[in-house]
Structure to design on (394 residues):
């Protein structure tokens, strides 16, 4: 226990500050996200395919932007301005959700919010990698992810309480969610410091060059390939909300879906990060993928709220085991001067896969039914397991 406490104490201030920022922004975003699928389908009359399209396009935009912003942060030699811009834009987009009168406005709001996420994502992760010794990176990414997920618990719980207090007024809940988003941008401005400025890779030039990509090692591209197939199995969590609603969860309690997932995610993220610092990555990835297969099959067969929540808990376990690990693997295999660009490549590949996964999930849901959506996810997760099995043990 003393060793664990010492490891936590040695994590840089930058990691803790960015973790607090993630907590605030996720509290805002997830209080909206926990209700948004039902706001779209019940209030605005949208289809499941529309829900998947909105979420998929949003994540793809975020990922494309991450590639550009990560590379730009390498060129600038600074990361904080982009992190501040990204959180600021996300905060400014939040009022569009309560003002929305159509799915098109929700699409615009989600686009702006995810664009902000894209601007900040890769530079933020690169800041963590820059500031943290290599032997503590798993813990650093695990801690930031754990704090991020605590926000993902607080937000939906607040949404449930507010829905009960204000007679299921989703728009009012969305208005209140703008407050922690503004707080996140303020904390970045006041508290986040660039403790270790990154190495500059040259003067201004096109954001991504083939010469840069050729410098990335084969192990890095193996990680990208596995992450892409993995992501095809990980469509939007909006479908978890829709599944729970379909088997009987009341509208006012819909945010509890994200709470259940996030409790498991938050509890497991730091221990999984510590495990990643001392164990072969293959073991952790296989464990995460096995949890995802189990989650998908459980959700496909679920006919009650209790069974659905069992699958949702397994979904949270797979997130805890895999998400921080992926951030660590990118940092481990990327040259320091191309770290932001490497995160950009990672997010671009997984963002395109997220778009494909979410759109496909929505189409399967509308055409065949919820079970088909989750069975397809299990198939892609099993394929990623086969690819991971061939990874080197060390």
């Amino acid at each position: 226990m003393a060793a664990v406490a010492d490891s936590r104490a040695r994590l840089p201030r930058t990691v803790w500050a960015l973790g607090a920022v993630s907590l605030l922004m996720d509290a805002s975003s997830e209080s909206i996200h926990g209700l948004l699928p039902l706001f779209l389908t019940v209030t605005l009359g949208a289809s499941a395919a529309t829900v998947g399209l909105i979420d998929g396009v949003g994540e793809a935009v975020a990922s494309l932007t991450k590639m550009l912003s990560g590379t730009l942060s390498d060129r600038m030699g600074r990361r904080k301005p982009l992190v501040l811009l990204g959180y600021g834009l996300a905060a400014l987009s939040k009022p569009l959700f309560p003002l929305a009168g159509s799915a098109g406005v929700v699409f615009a709001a989600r686009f702006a919010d995810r664009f902000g996420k894209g601007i900040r994502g890769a530079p933020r992760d690169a800041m963590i990698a820059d500031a943290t010794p290599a032997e503590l990176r798993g813990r650093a990414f695990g801690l930031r992810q754990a704090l991020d997920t605590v926000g993902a618990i607080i937000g939906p719980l607040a949404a449930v309480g507010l829905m009960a207090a204000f007679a299921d007024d989703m728009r009012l809940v969305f208005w209140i969610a703008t407050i922690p988003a503004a707080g996140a941008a303020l904390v970045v401005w006041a508290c986040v410091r660039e403790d270790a400025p990154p190495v500059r890779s040259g003067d201004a030039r096109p954001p991504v060059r083939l010469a840069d990509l050729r410098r990335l090692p084969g192990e890095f591209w193996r990680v990208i390939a596995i992450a892409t197939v993995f992501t095809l199995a990980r469509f939007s969590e909006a479908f978890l909300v829709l599944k729970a609603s379909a088997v009987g969860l009341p509208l006012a309690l819909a945010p509890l879906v994200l709470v259940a997932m996030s409790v498991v995610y938050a509890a497991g993220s730091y221990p999984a990060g510590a495990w990643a610092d001392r164990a072969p990555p293959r073991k952790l990835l296989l464990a995460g993928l096995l949890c995802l297969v189990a989650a998908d099959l459980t959700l496909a067969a679920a006919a009650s709220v209790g069974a659905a929540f069992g699958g949702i808990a397994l979904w949270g376990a797979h997130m805890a085991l895999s998400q921080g690990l992926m951030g660590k693997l990118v940092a481990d295999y990327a040259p320091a001067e191309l770290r932001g660009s490497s995160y950009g490549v990672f997010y671009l590949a997984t963002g395109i896969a997220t778009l494909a996964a979410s759109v496909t999930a929505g189409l399967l849901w509308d055409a065949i039914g919820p079970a088909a959506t989750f069975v397809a996810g299990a198939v892609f997760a099993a394929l990623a397991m086969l690819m991971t099995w061939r990874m080197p043990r060390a």
